[in-house]
Amino acid sequence: MIQRWGAFVARRATTVLAVGVAALVLSIGYGIGVFGALSDGGFDDPASESAKELVAEQAAFPGHGADVVAIYSSPEQKATEPAFEAAVRTVIDRLPSDVVTGVEPYYDTRGPGLVSQDGHAGMVVLSLAGTTQEARSASYDAIKDSLDADGLTTQVGGPSAVFADVNQTVSADIARAESLTMPLVFVLCLVIFGSAVAALMPTVVGAVAVFGAFAALRLLTTVTDVSIFAINIITLIGMGLAIDYALFMTSRFREELAAQPGNERQHVRAAVMRTMSTAGRTVLFSGLTVAASLASLLIFPQNFLRSMGYGGVAAVLVAMTAALTVLPAVLAVLGPRVEAGRMPWRRGSRATLMTGSLAASRWAAVAHSVMRRPVTYLVVIVVALVTLSTPFFSAAWGSVDYRVLPSSAPSHQAALAQAERFGGETSTAHIVVNGLQGGRLAEYVGDLAQVAGVSSVQVVDRTASASAGGPGKALVEVRWPGNEQAERSQQIVGELRAINPGA
Q1: No. of helices (H) and no. of strands (E), the chain
Q2: Measured in whole angstroms, how far is the alpha carbon of residue 469 from the centre of its chain?
Q3: Predicted local confidence at residue 469, as pLDDT
Q4: Whole-angstrom Cα distance, residue 245 to residue 309?
Q5: Which residue ranges of the chain lie beneath pLDDT 50?
């Protein structure tokens, strides 16, 4: 099959190339809009206890989440002064009630933790509409430009602000990475290939792979949620495999063309067919194998992992397709002109591409050395890989918070300001208690308070039936100092879950 396809591409190179260029133009136009279609978050397992709690909490007790934390400060005024309060209340009053389901300012709750230790900053905690992170991100987008208070310094943090900054940072980093890697790839290929035209081949295939995968991903967003993290793997896998495949194909084509008796059209076609039946077969099986491996990410319940699978499979398949269609068509059109722009160290080197000279090359010498001492190389490489992997065994696992962002990100700065001015970082766990009867809730709250490290436990809301003493539901909030990703915080959550609430 691959041989017949190679023969077709060699005969219809111009047509294949024209179709490829048209597809690339359409992919750029359509795929560039993928950034606006991707979702934030996606780190929760819908079957996990925490995800189920959030659904139950949103249904019974909406408006208690800390989705956005707005910090207002002034070096001259104190948070308790009338002018300061008026400025903050102006912001609160203009927030749409269908987007913001809960507002917790100091002026309504008199909570001591909502005013900074020096008294010159106040904190307002907002709960946003939406039962998923994607929905809450949309709610945040609707209000983020309305949170500034006149005459006060405003800093905005919280999970929704962090995810918005992650989205913006990833988009900016992708653009910067592409602007840096594309020229670098060209320079490296120029050194490897020794000619300007040949060095362009990996860059061309890389561009097709990335923008083609962007288009495929945007199409996928019309039927399912796709996380912003899919973009990272597209640029990583797409560019990497595109460069590899282009190197395979272009190097083989130059060798096959050098082995032909001439450079006429029939000789170029023969070189393309030989390239497709050898290097092309390798690219085909490599692409399908890598795509199948990355498809294993689709079994995970977390959306961000599935999205990385979507992006990885799309990038691999597009890179493979480009290497088996656009690239051989370009090589067939170029023919011997693939050597155009030859560097000084490549001049007069046509003969060096012949099989006899290749056997004496450095890479061939390395291959022969490995074949003579396979066990020695295997032991050395395994030991080196194990040594390099030792830091992995002490990896500390966690989810996404402000620390994944650069220190210049607004939500990162807001988190640091909250920790510095409001008494350090505080972690929170919400517990939805069902089937309340008698005084068991008070006993359960007392049991929770006995967990080492817990600083406070309070019932923040309850249903009408629970308030009357009958069966119902209550929302319990547990607080303790420290970052929620810390090992001790995870231990506290485990201890809280281990407490038996009774009936």
Answers
A1: 21, 7
A2: 48
A3: 57
A4: 20
A5: 349-360
